[in-house]
Amino acid sequence: MSKPIIATTSLAGCFGCHMAILDIDARILQLIDLVEFNKSPIDDIKTFTKECDIGIIEGGCCNSENIHVLKEFRKHCKILISLGECAIMGGLPALRNGIDVKECIEEAYLKGPTVGRNTERILPNDEELPMILDKVYPCHEIVKIDYYLPGCPPKADLIWAAVVALVTGDELNIPYELVKFD
Amino acid sequence: MKEKIISIVEAHGSDASRLMDILLNVQSTFGHVSAEAVSLLATMLRISEVDVVQTLSFYHFFSTTAVGKYAVYMNNSVVSCMMGMKDVVDEFEKQTGVKFGNTTADGKIGLYYTACIGMNDQEPAALINGIVFNELNRQKVRDIVAGMKVGIPVQDMIAHYGDGNNANPLMKSMVHNNIRKTGAVVLSDYTLGIGIAKALTSDAKSVIKEMKESNLRGRGGAGFPTGMKWDFCSRESGVHYIICNADEGEPGTFKDRVLLTERAYMLFEGMTIGGFAIGAAEGILYLRHEYTYMKAYLENVLKDMRIKNFLGNNILGRGYNFDIRIQMGAGAYVCGEESALIESAEGKRGEPRNRPPFPVQKGYKGKPTVVNNVETFCSATRIIEKGAAWYNTLGTSESAGTKLLSISGDCKFPGVYEIEWGMSINAMLEMVGAENVQAVQVAGPSGICLPPNQFHRKIALEDLPTGGSMIVIGQQRDILKDVVLNFMEFFADESCGSCVTCRSFNMILRNAIEKVVAGHAIKKDVENMQAWSEILRKTTRCGLGQTSSNPISTTIKNFPELYDARVKDVDYQSDFDMEKSVKASCEVVGRSSEVHELAKVNIN
Ligand SMILES: Cc1cc2nc3c(=O)[nH]c(=O)nc-3n(C[C@H](O)[C@H](O)[C@H](O)COP(=O)(O)O)c2cc1C
Ligand code: SF4
Ligand code: SF4
Ligand code: FES
């Protein structure tokens, strides 16, 4: 039997969740035995070359590109996991929700204290650039998400336990400490 | 401004526990409570500015910016909407040129929404500078706004006074009592003083014994045995307080308003009897802000009772000293919860306390306190007058006595009815002239939405308990949109915010029912609503959170077909609309939102 295939991506996240994946430390060697990676920043495969079993999503959707990537993941992965606060609820980026988009863009490119040299008052509008959405969306509002792993970032042991349970079919056994945050 | 504020603070003995009254006074004097006022109050009361702000920011009728010379608070609760609020709102907006939530540019007129003001039998109704305007329609709004424009005082805009004491020179209100049925206990003829005289000639223990034997249970909704409550409290040592809960905030309830209007003496007599029984020297009537128009009248009743020696020192020569003060609320439903009410009466935010200790152990100012509903005290007066045995001949075996119902909505005769416990919903509907009834909302938003196949059930604490709110919902109504969504908006607004689940789930549930109403929901959403309702019920500190999911959970249970008709049976559905969601950013940078992306987007 061929190994299950995993894809991962970071949408509107800080890459902290991917760092947490790497935090499984030496177990990464076991992981490589268990699964194969396809599209992912971990192996730098940039487009899907195979249909995958598990897609792991970090970050919510703040721009049009995030939406496309997430939909691609849904198309190519049997199971999708929202990994971390940003993917599940929008997280830190969603702090802008409720603030007018115009105000956000102006603060970022015209008025903010760190703007400094934008003397021509240029707002980014290259046609290669994706557009900012009216708010940051959690992933499950865009596509169906099968599982949620909470945390900011989720603990490496939680990610490990969940992925292993999924690929082995064993019962998921999460000690309370792994999802207790206070 | 400074002198005025100093005199307000001094009039309240520079006592920080009277912050509510002080803020109410500042608000009504200046039309708002400014930052300067806050800092002056903090200095004078020797508390921090944050202490002032936390109370100030909690209540609906306080504001930090000017509300307008004429401040209109339009009731937007369910029955007001049923009775045509939309037209009234539209006319107000047309005549003033501003939308609700705003003040006119000249600062003259402000338009705001507010939750149920206790006038469900005479909707649409609004409060304008604290005065009730009922049965509004487009013509009346045109006249009112025309009057405002030429500066007529609101009081002078009232053409006809209501019946009974509503027309009293100290009340001068257009409110109607709409008393449709009188019963043997609270609305039958009443003579001041028989109960007090009887109580004072016996002793506290005998009064409590009589109350226990009467089997009277609290009329505020929870139905706790009144005699037992008095007994517990009387056993505690030290100073005691007795408080009457006249917050009457449950949408659809207005019977306490009628008792306050027509049975104020009976109420104060009941408080005095209760005070004597538990050993209190001071009583407080906590009156909801919406009933400010009654304050002068009620103060005068208290004065009259002092003159007649039913209050004050050495009452009726029996050596008992007792007096009552009126504490005004400032607009917060949760302040009807007894421990929140106590916090509020102490000048703080109306946040419910953890229990135990219960108010009978540690209540107002940390002292043992009895809190009872208006109707409970009125009933107590009659029980002491006529005896527990007589009282037990009324009602059912588990619910003795009578109950005042506030009935409104789709019926011919909305108003107040004093019935014996045990009446069926069918009989009630016949009594109020209701036909083609789709549902009855029993006990307000926190109660249940009852379907016709349960109309045989009885209004009694052992079957359908109620604090008195009954809203009749006709066939023509869209229950999920007109009723459930409105109720959830109410709870989301009124949660005090202490408990995480109450603060967030009421909002989430409100959004969920909105999604159902809009036709975007799927089966899973409804399952989630049920699960979340359960979590909310189990994880909250006070009755608000414990019951606020009832509009949703009882309609899912009793009217599943309403959900089925609107909900899609699919596994997943997204309501995301790319074009709509990039519209704003495209506008800012000057790109067309329809073709905002390159044809071949590089999605990697
Ligand atoms: C959110 C909430 C609102 C309440 N509002 C009222 C009210 O407006 N009037 C009232 O008498 N009781 C109200 N209650 C019930 C009171 O907490 C308390 O049980 C009652 O005043 C006790 O008096 P009783 O035993 O005479 O009914 C409310 C309870 C909750 C949880
Ligand atoms: S959940 Fe936390 S760690 Fe993960 S992407 Fe968001 S901010 Fe970063
Ligand atoms: S349940 Fe709601 S209203 Fe009650 S204390 Fe908690 S947050 Fe406040
Ligand atoms: S994005 Fe992680 S520290 Fe700034």
Task: Please explain how this structure is put together.
The complex is a heterodimer of chains A (182) and B (604). Chain A has 182 residues and is α/β, with parallel strands linked by helices. Chain A has one domain (5-96, 134-178): Rossmann fold. Chain A is 32% helix and 19% strand. Chain A has six helices and seven strands, in the order βααβββαβααββα. Chain A has helices at 16-22, 27-34, 64-76, 84-89, 101-111, 156-168, and strands at 5-10, 36-37, 52-58, 61-63, 77-83, 132-137, 147-149. In chain A, the strands form two sheets. Chain A has a five-stranded parallel sheet with strand order 2-1-3-5-7, sandwiched between helices. In chain A, strands 4-6 form a two-stranded antiparallel ribbon. The termini of chain A are far apart. The mean pLDDT of chain A is 94. With 604 residues, chain B is an alpha/beta fold. Chain B has five domains: 2-56, no CATH class; 70-159, Glutaredoxin (3-Layer(aba) Sandwich); 181-392, NADH-ubiquinone oxidoreductase 51kDa subunit (Rossmann fold, 3-Layer(aba) Sandwich); 402-477, Ubiquitin-like (UB roll); 480-564, de novo design (two linked rop proteins) (Up-down Bundle). Chain B has helices spanning 2-11, 19-30, 35-45, 49-56, 78-82, 85-96, 138-149, 194-201, 204-214, 226-235, 255-262, 264-278, 295-307, 338-345, 374-386, 388-392, 425-432, 479-494, 500-517, 523-538, 543-547, 550-558, 560-564, 578-589; strands spanning 70-75, 102-103, 109-114, 126-128, 131-133, 179-181, 240-246, 280-287, 312-315, 320-328, 369-373, 402-409, 415-420, 437-442, 448-450, 469-474. In chain B, the strands form three sheets. In chain B, strands 6-13-12-16-14-15 form a six-stranded mixed sheet. A five-stranded mixed sheet of chain B has the order 2-3-1-4-5, with helices on one face. In chain B, strands 9-10-8-7-11 form a five-stranded mixed sheet, sandwiched between helices. In chain B, strand 2 (102-103) and strand 3 form a beta hairpin. In chain B, helix 19 (500-517) runs antiparallel to helix 20 (523-538). Residues 599-604 of chain B have low confidence and may be disordered. Classes of the chains: A alpha/beta (182), B alpha/beta (604). Bound molecules: flavin mononucleotide, iron/sulfur cluster (2 copies) and FE2/S2 (inorganic) cluster. One iron/sulfur cluster binds at residues 13-14, 16-17, 58-59, 84-86, 91-92, 152-153 of chain A.
